[in-house]
Design goal:
By secondary structure, this protein is an alpha/beta fold. About 40% of the residues lie in helices and about 10% in strands. The longest helix has about 30 residues, at about 330-360.
């Protein structure tokens, strides 16, 4: 796949190979998609300070995430329906990230199960939790994740209600998928995808079916999911999860400095500055715009990560310059997965690595750990804007 030069090339290939309902599930935002678009576009407001006359030989991209060394400051974000972009999608993505030396995060709403991924990999991976009403299911899920060797838990904070995504409504996408005539037409025009799915280990949400009470098959799954959104969810509901989990915990979905400060005060290991990829509150700040204000508030108290809008190593570099410990990517690796399975995910990571390495060189830096706001001009940032 060396002729694939950027994430947009992978995206174009994925669009041709993945059925429309699943491709658009990954590649869409809520309502007008204002925040989804801003996540990408706002990176252009940040300009690099190119430096010359500096020895930039022997550059290093490695950092530590929660005490563990990573080859580049990047992790794969949790993504629902990953296994519908390509058969065995979670397994292949986890294997690609392990070989690359970066963390993979498995979603609660993955197609392949925790145990499936653990069986196919040799290193600990991260697990993401949706806080649902069914506490017995959640408790069992946490035990399963720890038994599988997961050492970091991401708790998603911004899904106590579901933002409407017009593409999913128009496509009639449900969980599990209900294949009507228009869906069948989509599938038969994607024979490569369809033949792969015949070989898939799983076809439904394997972390749920057979584990949640009363959910013994795909038919009972949708009604169970519809009952799980908990609008009463609050900070105090995290206590029993924290008491049960023995590893590190990141809170995902933090966009406001005051919420970041709350997480720091409660002693969490880190946060992920995120707006759910623009899939929840439309009109919210882009992740990269929110990042420096949150870093100002808590950077010396906990590790700060971000996701949303990352499409290149240049974007990673800008996030690091604004104070992120590292970033997570969702759509880019899904494009790679949909384009060409494990090889596509690996190609995505290579693109990210190579463009990050090139970027720090132009900045006159040898080590990503030395990046800071000295390396960028960010005219949109106004100190105290949240006061």
């Amino acid at each position: 796949m060396k002729n694939i030069l950027n994430v947009e090339d992978l995206q174009s290939m994925a669009r041709k190979r993945v059925p429309k309902m699943f491709y658009e599930y990954a590649d869409s935002g809520s309502w007008s998609a204002e925040t989804y678009k801003a996540n990408e576009n706002d990176f252009s407001k940040i300009k690099f300070r190119q430096r010359v006359g500096v020895n930039i030989e022997n550059r290093t991209l490695s950092k530590t995430f929660l005490g563990k060394k990573v080859s580049i400051p990047l992790a794969l974000a949790p993504t629902g329906l990953c296994g519908m972009q390509h058969y065995n999608g979670e397994i292949l993505s986890a294997q690609a990230s392990e070989e690359f030396g970066i963390p993979f995060t498995l979603s609660t709403m993955s197609i392949c199960s925790i145990e499936d991924v653990a069986e196919a990999t040799s290193q600990p991976f991260w697990f993401q939790l949706y806080v649902m009403r069914d506490k017995a299911f959640i408790s069992n899920l946490l035990n399963r994740a720890q038994d599988a060797g997961c050492n970091v838990l991401q708790i998603t904070m911004d899904l106590n209600i579901l933002g409407q995504r017009h593409a999913d409504v128009r496509n009639g996408l449900s969980a599990p998928p209900k294949f009507k005539l228009k869906h069948i037409k989509q599938i038969i025009t994607k024979p490569r995808w369809a033949l792969g799915m015949l070989r898939a280990k799983r076809h439904f949400f394997a972390n749920v079916v057979g584990h949640a009470e009363g959910v013994t098959d795909s038919g009972a799954l949708w009604s169970w999911i519809a009952e799980q959104f908990d609008s009463t969810f609050s900070w105090k509901d995290l206590d029993w999860i924290r008491n049960q989990w023995k590893g590190k915990i990141l809170l995902k979905g933090i966009l406001d400095p005051d919420d970041a400060e709350k997480a720091a005060q409660l002693g969490y290991d880190g946060i992920i500055v995120s707006n759910h990829g623009g899939r929840q509150l439309d009109g919210a700040l882009s992740s990269i715009s929110a990042l420096p204000y949150i870093v100002d508030k808590v950077a010396n108290k906990m590790e700060v990560y971000m996701d949303g809008g990352i499409r290149s190593g240049q974007d990673i570099c800008k996030a690091l310059c604004l104070g992120a410990q590292g970033v997570l990517i969702g759509r880019p690796f899904l494009y790679g997965l949909g384009a060409n399975g494990k090889a596509g995910v690996t190609r995505c990571l290579e693109i990210m690595r190579d463009s990050l390495d090139e970027s720090i060189g132009f900045l006159g830096e040898n080590d990503v750990n030395n990046l800071s706001r000295k390396n960028v001009l960010y005219t949109s940032y106004k100190k105290g804007a949240f006061d």
